Hints:
Strand content: 5-15%
Largest sheet: 6 strands, mixed
Strand order of the largest sheet: 2-1-6-3-4-5
CATH superfamily of the largest domain: Aldehyde ferredoxin oxidoreductase, N-terminal domain
Distance between the termini: 28 Å
Number of helices: 25
Number of strands: 17
Number of domains: 3
Helix content: 25-40%
Structural class: alpha+beta
CATH architecture of the largest domain: 4-Layer Sandwich
Amino acid sequence: MNISNKILIINLSNCSVKKEIITNDVLNKFIGGRGLNAYLLLKYIGNNIDAYDSENVIAISKGMLTGTKALSSARIQVSAVSPITNIMGTSNAGGFFGADMAIDDIVSIVILGKAKEPAYIYIQENNVEIRNAKHIWGSDVEGSIKLIKEDCKNENARVAVIGTAGEKLVSMANVMFGADSAAGRTGMGAVMGSKNLKAIAINPSKKKSKGKSENTAKIIKKHLNLIKEAPDFERWSKFADSTDVKWLDDFGASPAFNYQKTHFEGVDTASGLSFKDAKTKYISCYMCPIHCKAKIEVDHGRHKGFLGDRPPFECMEAFGPKCGNDDAFESLYLHTMCNKLGMDTIETGSAIAFAIDLYERGILTKEETKGLHLEWGNNEAMEKLLEQIASRNSWLGNVLAQGIRKSAKIIGKGAEKFAFHVKGLAMTSMDPRGFNGTGLGYAIGSRGADFCNTYPSLECGYESRMPKDFFNNKEAENRFSPEGKGEMVSYTFKISAIMDSIGLCKIPYLSLLNDFGLKIPSELIEALLGIKITPGQLLKCGERIINAERFFNIRQGLKKSDDTLPDKFLTQPIKEGICKGAVVDIEKMLVDFYLQMNWSEEGIPNKTIIEEMNLEEI
């Protein structure tokens, strides 16, 4: 068995470094990644801590299989109290950083305290240095990576870095693992900025040849063949999910014009299919056969010749239909700006859509926008506002930099009606009236309104994606019905937590192979680590992780009243298309979900769960 078990505990306040070995008992309970971060935050953070308090803790943990020979085993999790939601912020990223942690058997990096001046951490062959970053502070993501590699005299160092947005405590600032892999949601980059921490660079020991047994090689080859034979493999490998902008529109649940309409007339040119003839360079994360990232050269318009990062679906929607923009290349440009400045595209696009909505309604005046014409689809105005948010150099930019929940309270004049968030986190693209399970997932997600946190994609297919007799209630897969959604979402929530803890990307295993039975992860853990664990045991770990996250959020002040959706989706039926007349019955689904999780009527895990889940320690 070769499993990472080393934790680096780095205190920026006193420049101390401790190395600890995490027990097998903790790893058996919390696996790694997202689960281990929940454990570490409960252990190191007290009750009701502010995100920018020096007592906030950043935990960066690789998944159990991250860095192994398993396909698409690149994932890494970053967690802390979120400046957007004030509950657990947690975000997942790919790239190569986690795989390099695995070489030195590092499972987690825990950051305590606050540096007196800008600093970065350099981990080299298990030695840890806290270095001065004054000369790097103020640089964007790509510039910072270049400077850090020069400072380390190591072109091969992997770098996790914040941009200028994180330095200025923009609440939606992200952590970039390299120039193109973002831990985007919940503002983890702002927490790093609050600690004066610019980056973490790692240069592991010389790579160890771990090899593969004949049986393991056969298993990996089998999975590779399954992935390549999946019906959607060709589309994913060419466009990733950028074409799903059209899929969502066809399903009648687009977020067009900040959720004013569920169909967008310019959807064809807003979709990633627009990139089909553009010059494209495909990029892969560690051990991934799909290559869903890409650099694309803009071949027309005001950005002709620009080489940008192809946005994933949610980012295409955020800067596309949600903002009334019908040009996919403009979305690509704005998404790339976010990566360069170190900001979450979903949150930033949602904030801009919110501002345009308020401007069109007369709630934001020309005086407050300083003459910026915030009209639907005005890409030049969107670009300028994005820059103002990142730099906080205007009144409106400074307001929006605090997230849409706080922005709405500052702006007033009824703005809160149009700030579509849950627990402070902006909603991802799918209108919940067209997908009831997704709506429930938004309401109960550990980090707020986010699809990937709960991954209820079993309701999202053109044809049924649910194995026969998977759930007791046959209405679980009917996206318009509230029936069965508590059972479905409680299940997919556990699956999502496990995948984020194992370190496997959800795209091949859940989106392409539909392995919601956890057969493949169980097989890989035994083959690569020598640990026998059944799908049922993994599911129980997923339940434990969700309960740990819930305990943490309750300590931060979370109440049942926070498990809801914006009033619009509960009271205003969709007016058009195939979802016409749909609203969300959140209370009915919430009762069912709490029952499935064995939580009280107030959404609190009971004492029996603490004992059954072996959570007494935390």
